[in-house]
Amino acid sequence: MSSFPELQNDLIIRAALGKPVDRVPVWIMRQAGRYLPEFRQLRSQYDFFTICRTPELACQVTLQPIERFNLDAAIIFSDILVIPQALGMEVQMLSEKGPHFPRPLNVPEDVKRLNADVNVNESLQYVMQALTLTRQRLNGRVPLIGFSGAPWTLMSYMIEGGGSQTQSKAKRWLYAFPEPSTQLLSLIARTVSAYLIEQVVAGAQMLQIFESHGGYLTKELFIRFALPYLQEIHDAVQAGLKDRGCYDIPLVIFAKDCHHVIGEVSALGYDVVGLDWTMDAVKTRQLVADNVTLQGNLDPCALYSPPEDLKQMARDMVDRFGKQRYIANLGHGIYPDVDPERVKCFVDAIHEYSSSNADK
Ligand code: CP3
């Protein structure tokens, strides 16, 4: 492993691992993105996946929000869809439509097209290089977060071929082809586990898994087709990191719209459970084990509020979650039309309020 500059702000790692903090750490999902004019400027010159595949550019974009705001973590600029790409699928990013797969998986036979023996360290070498470069350039300012999509969420994109209101094509597989579905999910889980371990070796200091489409599943489907693979990833990454001599790397699970299974999700062993904006902080705290840190969950649309209202919502959120074992964030990614000044207002409000209430 390369040697990296010493970490000066380890607040988010401490909060994630349940160590005492003197203020609440904060970061924002999709903090590197289109609401920043400097991102839009770069994006007008390069295709989305070209930025992902060019370590210098991915690093620059990752650092953009860190230069502007008092954030407590950076998240590497990439996308969850680099895994389907590594498995051999073509993915394009269309400007108005979002992700597009020209040849999605239609029938179980199509799974044979995938590259089952993918070596993520080779196929996704550009992510590793971006992580190493960014970790160097951060120079210890804040920790660097790596991430991946969860197996069910990635499977749903690979079958739907892009966004979907219903996920009905992907859910059809679960009901009509359960056995091939589990084979596909296992292949993705194995690939994701290896990918996450390599990200840490390359420089990631915390890992987040996005189960963004968990809320489309019934409790029964979630327990059969999502939960076991989240467990597998947790266990494989924990064991793999230990083997590679990497310690104290917090694992975060963000399962969106998953009230119906939040107890099960929070019992998987992840250090941090991310909550979307519909979840109640107090009730969730009572439901999950004491050794879990909660992350979230301001409505991303609250950033459209006048600054005074926004500050009050940030303070109320800290009051409800409490100051320990808590990481402030939005309940999902920031929207592209948010004013960056409001981001500053939110981040500063969390810091000011949580450090003035030192004993909470
Ligand atoms: O958080 C960050 O700042 C790091 C970068 C990041 C991106 N995507 C960059 C991105 C992360 C962590 C993601 C995760 C991601 N990607 C998820 C999980 C989080 C979630 O939103 O639930 C998902 C589902 C995707 C797939 C994806 N990528 C979609 C659906 C879209 C289109 C929707 C949109 O916001 O435009 C993307 C594109 C994307 N990924 C953009 C960015 C900055 C915008 C694309 C552009 O510049 O044209």
Count all strands and give the number. 9
Q: What proportion of the residues form beta strands (DSSP E)?
A: 5-15%
Mean pLDDT, all residues: 97
List bound small molecules.
coproporphyrinogen III
Q: Quaternary status of these chains? A: single chain
Structural class: alpha/beta
What is the helix fraction of residues, given as a range? 40-55%
Number of helices: 16
Silhouette: globular
Low-confidence runs of at least 5 consecutive residues:
none
CATH fold descriptor: TIM Barrel
Top-tier CATH class: Alpha Beta
Describe, in plain words, how this protein is organized in 3D:
This protein has 360 residues and is α/β, with parallel strands linked by helices. It has a single domain, classed as TIM Barrel, CATH 3.20.20.210. It is 47% helix and 11% strand. The protein is built from 16 helices and 9 strands. It has helices spanning 11-16, 37-43, 48-53, 55-68, 82-86, 120-123, 125-138, 151-160, 168-176, 178-202, 219-225, 227-243, 262-266, 281-287, 307-321, 340-356; strands at 74-75, 92-94, 98-100, 144-149, 206-211, 251-255, 272-274, 293-298, 326-330. The strands form 2 sheets. A 7-stranded parallel beta sheet has the order 1-4-5-6-7-8-9. It has a two-stranded antiparallel ribbon with strand order 2-3. The two termini are 38 Å apart. The model has no long low-confidence stretch (mean pLDDT 97). It binds coproporphyrinogen III. Coproporphyrinogen III binds next to strand 3.
